[in-house]
Amino acid sequence: MIKRVKTISKFLLFLGLGIFLLWLTVRSFGEKEIQQVKDLIFHANIMVVIFCSGILVFSHFIRALRWKMMIEPLGKSPKSSNVFFAVLAGYFFNLLFPRLGEVMKCTFISKYEDVPVDKLIGTMVAERLVDLICLIVVIALTILTQMNLVGSYALELTRLLEKKFHFTPLIWTLIITTIVLVVVLTLKLFNVSRNHPKLFKVKEIIKGMLEGLLSIRKVKSLASYIFYTVLIWFCYLISIRIGFYGMPSLSELGWIPSLSILTFGSFAMIATQGGIGAYQLAIQKTLTLYQIDQVSGLAFGWLLWLVQTLILFLIGPLSVLMLYLLNKKHQKQT
């Protein structure tokens, strides 16, 4: 019950923050500017929107193939269709509640492919670590290619992180002590026998998660894994670059602004539930660096967010249905 209340409270907090940021983006706009934003969105080039949507769906398919490569070392070879639909369904559930999608992805694959959930969770953690490394690379490229424009943004972000994580010696002592205790208890837990059923079950869960986490070392082709990873992020980048052609006022923008939007947009998607409010504001502020007016910047932020979100709201539930239909035979057998 307490856990459920915390989850709902977190959801409402992020949603409230998103609504506040939405208000922040338009507080200085009059009816004329708001109408201009709407007109720019509704008159965007529909062919560009459809093409960018296809690129994003393709990126999800590549992500599914990459995840499948991490599952195979666990002794299972799931169907690509199942993994793909599970990934799409996971993104959809993430829009509803934070991190719910990760749980649902693992649940679907465990149910339809008989892969232990704990091992799948381990692969999810490994995937997030890889994506974090990619985001750091993208941030570095953004700063190195346009220090004069985004340097102040990077400096501000660094200061915020320093302030947020400025730990006192006492806090550092507590953190180190906690880590040591966790390591010691984990090592002792690995010596637990079947004579302690509950502890033994915890031990097996932890071992499964570690096996999933380390599965990246055993992928059949590390080169293919790296290629898929680069391709995923390139799809994100090129969808933004092509997206500029959807609005005449942005069609002259190139790869460098696309890189900036990918960087700051990624942070914004983490800041609030589904990126609502934060994403539009981040895109608007980023585009002002390239002499784009606030109305066009906000309209493009909304357009990108709507494309990403509506895709998932449309194909997310459909993916859950497809998983059920494609695996009806499997369900009957089990």
Describe this protein with a few key phrases.
334 residues
Which SSEs are present, and which pair or pack?
Blueprint: H1 2-26, H2 31-42, H3 46-71, H4 80-96, H5 100-113, H6 117-145, H7 147-164, H8 169-189, H9 197-213, H10 222-243, H11 255-271, H12 278-288, H13 294-326, H14 328-333
Description:
The chain is built from 14 helices and no strands. It is globular. Helices cover 80% and strands 0% of the residues. It has a domain at 46-248 and 319-333. The chain has 334 residues and is mostly helical.
β-strand number:
0
Sheet-strand content, in percent, reads under 5%
Average pLDDT for all residues: 77
- In N-to-C order, the SSE pattern is HHHHHHHHHHHHHH
**Main sheet attributes: strand count, strand direction, barrel closure:** none
Discrete helix count: 14
Q: State the helical fraction.
A: over 70%
Pick out the low-confidence regions.
none
Determine the N-to-C terminus distance: 31 Å
Give Rg in angstroms. 22 Å
| Class based on secondary structure composition and strand pairing | mainly alpha
Question: How does the overall form come out from the CA principal axes?
Answer: globular
